[in-house]
Amino acid sequence: MKRIVILNILALFFALNSLNAQESDHLNWISDFNQAKAIAQKENKPILIFFTGSDWCGLCKLLEKDFFASEKFKNIAVKNLVLYKANFPRRTDLISLKQKEINQELDKKYSKSRRQRVFPTIIITDKNGKELSFLESYNYIHDTSRHYKMLDFILNKNKP
User: Fold this and answer.
1) Helix (DSSP H) and strand (DSSP E) numbers for the chain
2) In this structure, is residue 17 part of a structural domain?
């Protein structure tokens, strides 16, 4: 009986420890673009805007898994970027009406020079929202090298 209790306590300990590790792996995606801009201005960091269709875009999901969930990206992002996810889901309950309106405004603002929004798209702006770089689409060969080159270029360009 004591063994069962001890085994259950150990299992609970490892389960809780695993949950804490998973929680610390999450990136801080700001849900309000005005707040993201305020943080970027305060911390003098560029803003990475990720245009995604979280519930329908297969390539967006792949990019999240291959790029945004990588330790390499997390280490870069925590120190150097403010993150904003401009989500365009098909399910209306996934984002608020206010978020939908803000995302549509961002789409209009940052797609002026392009015909139509391609999903996924990453746009990096300066702390004031001026576009510095963009990268459209992703592929099934899981090659994130272009994404890291863009980050490297922007982050090295903006160093004082």
Assistant:
1) 6, 5
2) no
**Percentage of residues in the chain having pLDDT higher than 90:** 74
User: What's the CATH code of the domain at 77?
Assistant: 3.40.30.10
**Cβ proximity of 47 and 132 under 8 Å:** no
Alpha-carbon distance of 87 to 104, in angstroms, equals 9
Total structural domains within the chain? 1
pLDDT of residue 20: 36
- Where does the chain have alpha helices with state H? 2-24, 33-43, 58-63, 71-80, 97-110, 145-157
Cα gap 81→148, rounded to integer Å:
13
Q: What is the pTM of this model?
A: 0.81
